[in-house]
C-alpha cells in the first residue's frame, strides 16, 4: 500500500491554493476552479485542496454534522531547512501563529500556524541547538 494523495477540504479554495503555492512553491497540476486543485512537490507527492461544499458530496449524508466548525483535526507537518523563516513566511501570507518554533522531544524544532481553511501547519527542522 502506498500513500497516493493528501487532500484537505477548505472553505475558500482560491485563497487556500494561493497560500499553499506561495508558501511551498509547489506546482499546480490540476485546477477545477471553485471545486478542486492539486499541487505536486518536487519529489512527486500530491497535495489536493477541495472546496468543502464539493468535498462533502463525495462522503455521504452524515459528514456535514461531523465537520468541526473552525479547526480541523489534521496537521500538515513539513520538513524545511529554516523553520523560523518558513513560519514567518506563512504568517505573512495570512496564517495565524499558534506557537513559536521550539525544540520538541522527538528531535525537531517545530512551529505551528493555523493556515487558511483551518488546518494546522507544522514547520519543522532537525534540532540544531538554537
List keywords for this structure.
single chain, 130 residues, 4-stranded mixed beta sheet, alpha/beta, 8 strands, 4 helices
**Helix segment tally:** 4
Strand order of the largest sheet: 1-4-3-2
Radius of gyration: 15 Å
The major sheet is characterized as:
4 strands, mixed
Percent strand? 35-45%
Give the distance, in angstroms, between the N- and C-terminal Cα atoms: 38 Å
Helical coverage, percent range: 25-40%
Describe the structure.
The chain has 130 residues and is of the alpha/beta class. It contains four helices and eight strands, in the order E-H-E-E-E-H-H-E-H-E-E-E. The chain has helices spanning 13-24, 52-59, 63-66, 83-92, and strands at residues 6-10, 27-32, 36-40, 46-51, 75-79, 96-103, 108-115, 119-126. Strand 7 and strand 8 (119-126) form a beta hairpin. The N and C termini lie far apart (38 Å). The mean pLDDT is 84.
Provide the fold topology:
Blueprint (H helix, E strand, L loop, with lengths): L5 E5 L2 H12 L2 E6 L3 E5 L5 E6 H8 L3 H4 L8 E5 L3 H10 L3 E8 L4 E8 L3 E8 L4
Parallel strand pairs: 1-4, 5-8
Antiparallel strand pairs: 2-3, 3-4, 6-7, 7-8
Would you kindly provide a brief summary of this structure?
The chain has four helices and eight strands. It is of the alpha/beta class and 130 residues long.
Amino acid at each position: 500500500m502506498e500513500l497516493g494523495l493528501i487532500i484537505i477540504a477548505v472553505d475558500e479554495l482560491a485563497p487556500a491554493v494561493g497560500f499553499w503555492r506561495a508558501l511551498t512553491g509547489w506546482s499546480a497540476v490540476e485546477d477545477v476552479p471553485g471545486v478542486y486543485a492539486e499541487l505536486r512537490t518536487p519529489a512527486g507527492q500530491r497535495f489536493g485542496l477541495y472546496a468543502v461544499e464539493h468535498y462533502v458530496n463525495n462522503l455521504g449524508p452524515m459528514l456535514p454534522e461531523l465537520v468541526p466548525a473552525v479547526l480541523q483535526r489534521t496537521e500538515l507537518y513539513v520538513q524545511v531547512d529554516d523553520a523560523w523563516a518558513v513560519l514567518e513566511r506563512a504568517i505573512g501570507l495570512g496564517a495565524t501563529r499558534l506557537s513559536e518554533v521550539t525544540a520538541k522531544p522527538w528531535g525537531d524544532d517545530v512551529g505551528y500556524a493555523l493556515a487558511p481553511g483551518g488546518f494546522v501547519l507544522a514547520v519543522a527542522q532537525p534540532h540544531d541547538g538554537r
